[in-house]
Task: inverse folding
């Protein structure tokens, strides 16, 4: 099973001792830089990477998959609002507007 | 203030050592994350959206200047140079490193503070009227009872694993400044016909996704019986509260499902049963605790102060601040000062390390070295001499703390929201900032008069939106933040839940929407009518019509 077109996934977690947001890299290490994240184009691969993350509890806590879109600079950009906020500094997130879904109920006036 | 005895000191230090050991276990793999997580939560350590968060208890919101200095120091040494005061009168650090937290707790223990029971399904920090002991309308100082309940509830073996968290508030004044109708248990100190003081016990209030105004369970419980009575309430809750569904686990759900009469019958049955209760309170024990709150060495001062009068006559800006932020004190010649952490454009409840140091120093110079944190996320200097008020105000101004907006539209309560909180659906802080900036003109604020805006970033209602005169609830719909408005909430003795007006507004639309409501009030109020009074007279429906006219 693959993720929807133009969408990929990365694995994120928190550094156990520092609490910093980190990303699983191609070398299966952890980096605080989103651009270093290993990209999973398919859900199966994302799940494999998550299992690897879970096998490193001495390094990270609360690992999970997030859906991303890769921008022109090759940097993964989060799609869900919570993740957009998480990857931004507080109060610097700008307009939090997910690009994940179209046909939002908002467009039909239901809020 | 209460001071730790030998036992207290030994206990908190032992607890720090335990946590250090537990953390070591997590690092070396002898404890799994699943095993460690509840242990860290029992010490106030959460994992939030961006980082760990440490919530430190400020019992009934009372701090010494030494403690405030320490809070500032910790924010600089271990965090990003600021702290966030919460609606439970606590402080949160948003960026501590887990590796540093045992050291932080150790430093807190040195100044008689800790983070125990600031998380988990236990009895949380006891909250209280921030003007306790100094308010001139007080039946009795509630702090000794709050301290008594704090001691009783700390690591209470029977109540450490309740169905859900449990919040208790105490007030000793007929003016409710502790939101007692919105706690699991609210206690009002009252006097009975015989002239004795005891507590009216209110149960089953709360906000969250099922907001409920608490109900009077007992009109008078003697102080000597109070802990036994509280035990009976907690016991009935512990036995019958739902553990299968966290959204239905609070005592308010139990009280509603059993009905108040049946709940009361269960409590009375337990209370009347022989044995197994906290013994009657020894008067000497209560007197021992009361001694800690005897009050500072007040001077005999004239009620009228010439220097204050002169400053008020010549400095209108000071006069505005005085009118709004200074409260009458029970001792002639003194006043209780509210320092709002609500600079329009700032973050509600946030204080920088420099501001915390300034507040500590000003407390030392002007207020017998004591401070209070309010549930509205402000700071109180409780014991300021009238002739010091002008100097204090000037000194506060040097630190961006002299805003005269207590209880006005920019004195906004806001939860951390999606900027920090992992549970949030939408941001609260930027909305508070935008609204406060829009209404930043002091003259306009004063013309609008008393008006509270409370903002929560999710249904858990940490920003108390249900009881704001205007409440704002952030929701996420279709990947966008929207804000629903409630109107007519009230956390005082005339407690009322706000009524939702209708569909939500986008982040860009919410401030104009608030402005529309405020403008309508200003145009239609009768003389001297507050916003809340106007809403009650005119009706929520009318405001709703105005708000949604031309709405598409």
Result:
């Amino acid at each position: 099973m693959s993720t929807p077109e133009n969408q990929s996934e990365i694995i994120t977690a928190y550094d156990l001792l520092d609490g910093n947001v980190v990303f699983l890299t191609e070398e299966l290490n952890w980096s605080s830089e989103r651009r270093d994240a290993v990209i999973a184009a398919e859900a199966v691969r994302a799940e494999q990477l998550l299992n690897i993350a879970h096998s490193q509890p001495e390094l990270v806590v609360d690992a999970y998959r997030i859906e991303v879109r890769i921008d022109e600079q090759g940097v993964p950009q989060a799609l869900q609002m919570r993740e957009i906020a998480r990857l931004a500094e507080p109060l610097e997130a700008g307009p939090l507007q997910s690009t994940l879904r179209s046909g939002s109920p908002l467009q039909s006036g239901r809020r | 203030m209460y001071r730790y005895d030998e036992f207290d000191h030994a206990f908190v230090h032992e607890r720090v050592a335990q946590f250090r050991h537990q953390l070591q276990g997590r690092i070396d793999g002898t404890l799994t994350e699943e095993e460690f997580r509840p242990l860290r939560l029992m010490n106030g350590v959460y994992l939030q959206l961006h980082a760990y968060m440490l919530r430190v208890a400020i019992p009934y919101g009372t701090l010494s200047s030494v403690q405030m200095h320490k809070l500032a120091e910790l924010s600089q040494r271990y965090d990003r140079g600021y702290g966030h005061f919460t609606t439970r009168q606590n402080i949160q650090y948003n960026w501590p490193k887990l590796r540093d937290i045992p050291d932080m707790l150790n430093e807190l223990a040195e100044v008689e503070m800790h983070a125990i029971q600031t998380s988990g399904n236990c009895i949380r920090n006891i909250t209280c009227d921030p003007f306790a002991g100094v308010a001139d309308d007080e039946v009795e100082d509630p702090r000794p009872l709050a301290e008594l309940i704090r001691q009783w509830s700390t690591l209470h073996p029977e109540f450490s694993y309740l169905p859900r968290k449990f919040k208790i508030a105490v007030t000793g004044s007929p003016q409710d400044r502790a939101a007692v109708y919105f706690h699991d248990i609210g206690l009002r100190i009252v006097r009975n016909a015989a002239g004795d003081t005891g507590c009216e016990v209110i149960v089953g209030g709360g906000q969250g996704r099922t907001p409920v105004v608490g109900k009077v369970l007992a009109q008078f419980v003697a102080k000597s019986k109070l802990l036994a009575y509280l035990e009976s309430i907690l016991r009935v809750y512990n036995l019958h509260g739902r553990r299968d569904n966290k959204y239905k686990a609070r005592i308010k759900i139990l009280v509603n499902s059993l009905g108040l009469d049946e709940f009361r019958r269960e409590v009375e049955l337990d209370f009347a049963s022989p044995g197994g209760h906290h013994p009657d309170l020894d008067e000497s024990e209560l007197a021992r605790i009361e001694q800690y709150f005897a009050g500072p060495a007040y001077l005999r001062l004239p009620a009228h102060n010439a220097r204050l009068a002169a400053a008020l006559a010549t400095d209108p800006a000071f006069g505005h601040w005085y009118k709004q932020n200074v409260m009458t004190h029970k001792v002639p010649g003194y006043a209780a000062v509210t320092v709002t952490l609500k600079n329009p454009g700032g973050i509600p409840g946030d204080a920088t390390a420099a501001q915390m140091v300034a507040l500590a120093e000003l407390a030392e110079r002007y207020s017998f070295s004591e401070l209070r944190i309010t549930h509205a996320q402000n700071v109180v200097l409780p014991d300021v001499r009238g002739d010091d008020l002008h100097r204090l105000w000037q000194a506060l101004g040097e630190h961006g703390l002299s805003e005269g907006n207590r209880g006005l539209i920019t004195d906004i309560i806001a939860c951390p929201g999606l900027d920090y909180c992992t549970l949030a659906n939408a941001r609260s802080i930027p909305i508070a900032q935008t609204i406060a900036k829009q209404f930043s003109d002091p003259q306009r604020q004063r013309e609008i008069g008393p008006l509270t805006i409370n903002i929560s970033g999710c249904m858990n209602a940490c920003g108390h939106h249900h009881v704001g005169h205007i409440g704002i609830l952030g929701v996420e719909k279709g990947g966008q933040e929207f804000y629903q408005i409630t109107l007519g909430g009230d956390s005082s003795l005339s407690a009322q839940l706000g009524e939702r007006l209708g569909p939500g507004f986008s982040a860009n639309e919410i401030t104009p929407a608030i402005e529309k409501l405020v403008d309508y009030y200003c145009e239609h109020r009768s003389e001297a009518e507050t916003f809340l009074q106007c809403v009650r007279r005119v009706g929520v429906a009318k405001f709703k019509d105005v708000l949604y006219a031309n709405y598409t």
Summary: DSSP finds 18 helices and 21 strands in chain B. Chain B has four domains: 6-110, 134-292, 306-397, 413-548. The longest strand of chain B covers residues 215-222.
